[in-house]
Structures are given as structure tokens and as C-alpha cells.
Amino acid sequence: MLIQDLLHETPEDLSREESLKSTNTLTPEQLRKMNAYWRAANYVSVGQIYLYENPLLKEPLTLAHVKPLVVSHWGTTPGQNFIYVHLNRAIKKYDLDMFYIAGPGHGGPAIVGNVYLEGTWSEVYPNVSQDEAGLKLLFKQFSFPGGISSHVAPTTPGSIHEGGELGYSLSHAFGAAFDNPGLIVACVIGDGEAETGSLATAWQSNKFLDPVTDGAVLPILHLNGYKISNPTVLARIEHDELDQFLRGCGWTPYFVEGDEPEKMHQLMAATIDKAVEDIQQFQKNARSNNDVTRPRWPMIVLKSPKGWTGPKFVDGLQIEGTFRAHQVPLLVDGAHPDHVKLLENWMKSYKAEELFDKNGRLIAELAELAPKGDRRMGANPHANGGLLLHDLRMPDFHDHAVQVVSPGATQVEDTLVLGSFLRDVAKLNQDKRNFRIFGPDETVSNLLQAVFEVTNRQWDAREVGNDEFLAPQGRVLDSMLSENQCEGWLEGYLLTGRHGLFNSYEAFIRIIDSMFSQHAKWLKVCNELPWRRDISSLNYLLASHVWQQDHNGFTHQDPGFLDHVINKKADIVRCYLPADANCLLSVFDHCLRSRNYVNVVVAGKHALPQWLTMDEAVVHCTEGVGIWQWASNDQGSEPDVVMACCGDTPTLEILAAVSILRQHLPELKIRVINVVDLMKLQPCTEHPHGLTELEYDSLFTKDKHIVFGFHGYPWLIHRLTYRRTNHKLHVRGYKEEGTITTPFDMRVQNDLDRFHLVQDVVDRVPNLGSKGAYLKQNMQDKLIEHKHYINAHGQDMPEIRNWKWSDTK
Question: How far apart are CA 649 and CA 743, in angstroms?
Fold first, then answer.
């Protein structure tokens, strides 16, 4: 193909678009009914925004019928109503398994209204009946105290996508399409949303879709020209430039442009038919002929006025087709009493008396346009993924146990061990195709490469000779360097009834802080909706963590995701910091079996000492926190100090400090506590995993000093424990010190090393006398010796590198 063919429309492209424009796909009767259905959806949308009385305008509209506080968005709504009615026609014509993702922010009036008109809303919420009384309830509940939000939310049947925060719709759509070969996900993308970084990157997701084993995504870019108060970029570039951009991203765009309803209905019907037939032909070719050529999947660009069919001018200002239509296009309140009549005229323009019978029910000939049963987009089972969820076939994690003859005698890379377990999970579920591993090019880096013994990276773009593990089909999606896409894909995958995990460098998981927040909020609301079925948990594996970034330095050191996660509802979030590989296996087996949680697991990939046998690890992880009796010497007496640790590296340093203390101060009674489940530290009144006051005091005592080595920012431990009785808590963790240096020096710079920890104990515990003073001086000497040694040799001292735990009773 010539370069100019790639950059410009070919004659075939032009003839294709012209033929679509000249096609009368709809008969006059179909056109009449579809336009009427669209009017009904627009009427119901406006009613939701404004009214809580007089839903069918059977009496003259007054200010008393209007909500005191009108809060919503109109601009995207009529366009989405237009799209929905046309997708309904295609579903019936082609018997499609399809559901709808509403990307444009607050397009709630459209989707709620259409789900109501098709009958799904009343099935899920029987009190909102399909009659005048139900219509009144539908209108009142929208964006009203005790009701539903103004955007598409978990309360909306048929939705897997929260419309409040922009940018994730296309990622969610692809996540839903993976391993769903019969599904088409219609994804409506707002032109404001298209300017977000995550959406801009999501156009490349088509390089990862396998036409044989996956479903399809039909993006519909809804260009209405404006955001809240500014024009949108893609609506203001030339047609050719937009066409070239979308083609350059690997799509075949079809344009539907205009504002005359009859012409737009004909063009949209023809265009959707063409897109569906393209999809079906691509899939048939791939599945029948084993053709692995990447399709140039179709997409639709719908260019229609913002606030289409709404008020054209209000108080001398143009509304329709401008940014002023974005939110509430018409203020109707005590300060604008003359606007009541404008609202009434607007609503009457849809001629509700032709659309609803005297009882307020959509007339039969229009109701017949909607699909039936599960083919309705609001009732599609994929949008309530728990309906389709099946348990994973799980290997026995004991088979992957590290043999621990004595604590600390063996050194192992924890995530390397986990990789073999995940390999077996992938292998056991190959035929079910319901488990995937996601990550931004870090699966091998995080030592999970064993999974490639049984699967590949899914990749549908070009391959060259030196590539590894690339194939059109695979259980791993890690070939795109975008945390946003990995998160969005995984969320879409989970929300449609499958299982998975996201592995990432700890520092850069922060890129998806907001995406995690939205998913956690989604789960929180779903827990309050009995009709929403439980889905598989969102599992994060954070490796290459803060204490293993001595080679990358300061930029790669940030354990703050833990701080962010625990802000969310306690019945949603779980945080685990296993101390060794056996604990990691036990924890991850639990996480993959769990439902409706966000599980964050922090684990190391560098060789570290292994502390517990598998049997011991299972008990310890089940408890979540406990005394390590083999490391403690306070049996039969009260401890003088509690040495606590949470995380693999802090555990190493706390135990090294304990060994020094027990060697030099054998009379000192030390209790060693390890924490796996971070939420155990919170009171049980705050988190379901939390310890009771009696349990906490029994472990940590009421009055002894606690020296706590923690993986992350120290203040997180203080925050979790501030209500506890014992406030003699001294936490050592990451304090924003780091560079390219040795592993041990990273700990020294943050005062988490064994020498600083020993000094801390000496400073806290009274009556250590001369022995304590000499030991503290010895530790200071060691710190200076350490600094001189690494500056001279570029590695840690032999006593650090070769240290082993020994029983010093």
C-alpha cells in the first residue's frame, strides 16, 4: 500500500462513506418508530433532570413540580439516547450479545432512562413500575437525596463503568471483551473523555485483541464539540486529520455527522449495520481460516450537537450546540420563574402523549423495539459479572513450599516461588479461559516468568525474530507499558465474571491511584445492592519494592500506595506484607479465592532469608499477626521491649537487631512480633480483621516500648494504632531517603537498619547501664565502618551479606 493510502482516504473509502449516506436502511415505519423511541428517551431524560411531580404533564407545569435543586448533565444525553436506540435495533436484527459502556461523564439520564424503557429497571427495582407512579419515582430519585447519582453507577443495571471519572471506558470495554468470543462491547467515548491520558492510550488496545478467542469492542466516539466550558480538541481538528489519527491507531472509522434527525437515523442505522457486519466478517475469517492478520476493527464517530433537541436559545444566549448545554441548560427556580414555561415547552416538544398511554406506560409498538430478556443491554449478564463467575481451579500451594530446616538458613526470591504457583493456576484454567495476569512489561522483571512455561503474552501486532513469549493468544497481558491500561483491562475482566491479578513495581502503581479509588467505590456501592453478585477480588502484587531499588534509586522508591488504599472502606480493602515465600504462597492462594475485595500484596524479588515452614506460614497468615516464639526470649516473664516487623526487609533487620541484642544483652527480654495482615493493627471496630483491645494488648503489651520496623511510611502504623492503649510506639520505615546505593545502605539512610534499631532499643529501655552504653557506641562504630566500606568497595560488608540467624539462647 502506498504511503498516501495510509494517510488519506482512498477512493474505496470515499465510495463506502457515500454509499452509507445514500442508503435508506430504515423503512418509513421503522424510521417513525425509532424517532419516537428516541423522543421518549429524551423526554424521560429531561424529566429525570428536572421533575419530581407531574411526570406526564397532565396539568400545567409549575415551579412546585420542579426539584428545588436541579443537578445533572444534559449535553451528552440526547446523543447517547440516539446511540442506544440504534444499538437496540442492531441487537434484534443480528441477535447480538452486546452491552453498553457510557464513557461520557454524567450521561446518567440517558442510560437510566433507556434501561427503564426496556423494562430492566422495573425488574431490578419493582417499586419503580412502568406506569405513571413509577415514572414519578424514576424522575424523583435521579440526582436527589436518597436516590441515585447523576452519572452511570453500580445502581444502573447493565453498567460495569462508573461515569464519574473520565478516561477508563475503552480499557474497561477491552477487559470485558477478552475471552468473551460472542460478546460485542459498545463503548461510547465522550470527546472530552478522549483527551484524557488513559483514553488516548486505550486506542492501542486493538493490538491485543484476538479475533478467534476474544469478543469485539465497537468504540463510538461521540463528538458534540464541548467540555464544561471549552471546545474539545478532536471536534476542532479537520475531518481528514481526525480520520488519519484514528486510522493511525489501527481503526477503520465511519462518520455519522449532522443534526437533522431523519437523515441521522438513516445514516446511523446503515453505519451500525456496516460495523457489525465488519466485526462478524473479521471473526468468521479468523475463526474459519485461522487468519491471524490483525483486523482494522470498525469504529463510529458520531458528530451531533451538544444538547441536541434541547433549548436552542435562553435569555438571548445560544444553548444547543454550545458548551452552555453541558450541564443544566435551563435554570428553573425562584430566580427564573419565566423559565418554567420554557421547560414545559421543551418537554412538550417530545409529544409524550404520543409515546405513553394514559397510564404512563410506553406504548406497545415502541416497547417492541427493545430487545427481550438477556439481550437487553441493561439485563446483559456480563454487566453483572458475578452471575457468570466460576471458581478457579486452584493448585495446592503446599506443592510449591520452600523447605525451611531452620529459620533464616535458606535464601530464596519470594516472587520467583510465587511464579511457579501462578504458572499452575494458569495451566489448570487454560480451558476455562477465565484467568489472566496483567502488568506493564514487568512480569519477567518481577520474577514471574514461570508462567511462560504454559502460556504466552497476548499480542496481535507485528512480531520479529528476537521476541519472546508473544502470540495471538495468551494468559498474560503485559506488553503495553501503561499501568492505566493494565488496570482498566483487569477491572473490565473482573467485572464481567473472571479472575486475575496485576503485578507492578510498587512505586509506579501510584499511577493508577485514582482508578483503584473508583473501583473500590464501585465495590462499596455494589455491597449495598442485593442484585449485584459478588465478583472476584482485584489483586495487586507489588514487587520491585522500595527496599529493592538500590540500583534504580530515588525515583523508584515509593511505598505510599498502602497509605492510599487504607483510606477506603474497611469491608473492601486488605493489605498483606508476607515475610517470606511460604507466607506469600499462603496469602496469594487466599486472595485468588476471595470475592469483592481489593487485595494488596507487597513481596520482594531479591533473595532473602526464609523464616517459616509451610505449616507454620499457614497458621501465621491465618492469624495475620503473631509472636515468633523461636525469635523471642520472654517466655515465662514480661518482655522488656517488643520488637515488631511488617514486610520482608523490615523482618530481616528486626531479627538481625534482635540477634545483636540477645548476644550483647542476654538478660534483656525481647518479644518478636511479625505482622502479615496490616489491617490487624486497626481496632476490630474499624476493620473486620482488626484485633480486639484485649488481643492487641496481649501481644504488644499495655506499657512496654515497641520498636516497629515497617515496610512503608512510618506514620501509617501510627495512624492504624492511634486508638490503642500503648502509645510507646516507635516506628522505623521509609522516610524519603534514597539513591543508587547498596541494599543495606538504603536501610541505613532510613534508620531501618539493625544498628539504628539496636540503638533505639538502648535509648528506650531503662536500666541497661554500662552494657547499653557500650553497645550503643559499638553500633555507631558499625555505622561508620559501613559507610567507609561501601564507599571503598561498592558493596555491603561481609557481615551484612553473609548474616544468618542463629539461636542465641
Answer: 10
Strands 625-627 and 670-675: antiparallel
Mind listing the pLDDT tens digit for each residue in 115-157?
A: 999 999 999 999 999 999 999 999 999 999 988 988 899 999 9
**CA pair distance 799, 806, nearest whole angstrom:** 14
Who's near 27: CB < 8 A, 6+ residues apart? none
Q: Which residues contact 9 (CB under 8 A, 6 or more apart)?
A: 17, 240, 243
Give all strands (DSSP E) within 133-284, no chain letters. 183-190, 216-223, 252-257
Sequence-distant (6+) residues with CB within 8 A of 313 are 319
Cβ 354 vs Cβ 35: under 8 Å? no
Cell 489501527, residue located: 250
Helix (H, G, I), strand (E, B) or coil at 11: helix
* Alpha helices, DSSP H, located in 381-482: 414-428
DSSP E strands, 472-623 = 476-477, 499-505, 538-543, 573-576, 598-602, 607-610
Q: How far is CA 98 from the centre of its chain?
A: 22
Residue 2 has pLDDT above 50, yes or no: no
Amino acid at site 101: I
- CB burial readout 666-704, b (16+ within 10 A) else e: eebbbbbbbbbbbbbbbbeeebebbbeeeebeebbbeeb
Which distant-in-sequence residues (6+ apart) come within 8 Å of 761 by Cβ? 641, 643, 657, 661, 668, 705, 707
DSSP β-bridge partners for residue 608: 412
Query: Cβ contacts of residue 5 below 8 Å, gap of 6+?
Result: none
How does strand 457-458 pair with strand 538-543? Answer: unpaired
Neighbours of 131 (CB within 10 A): 16
Tell me the pLDDT tens digit for each residue of 19-62.
Answer: 677 678 999 999 999 999 999 999 999 999 999 999 999 999 99
Alpha helices in 612-701 (DSSP H): 614-623, 648-664, 693-700
The string of DSSP codes covering 683-713 is BTTT-TTPBPHHHHHHHH-SSSEEEEEESS-
Residue 630's Cβ-count burial label (10 Å; 0-12, 13-18, 19+) is: middle
pTM over 0.90: yes
| Residue 755 Cα distances to 42, 508, 547, 672, 747, angstroms | 70, 30, 17, 17, 10
| Other residues' Cβ atoms within 10 Å of the Cβ of residue 452 | 19
Per-residue pLDDT reduced to its tens digit, 340-361: 999 999 999 999 999 999 999 9
C-alpha 749: how far from chain center = 34
Largest CA distance in the chain: 101
Measure Cα distances from 71 to 307, 593, 697 in Å.
15, 41, 50
pLDDT digits (tens, 9 = 90+) for 439-463: 999 899 999 999 999 999 999 999 9
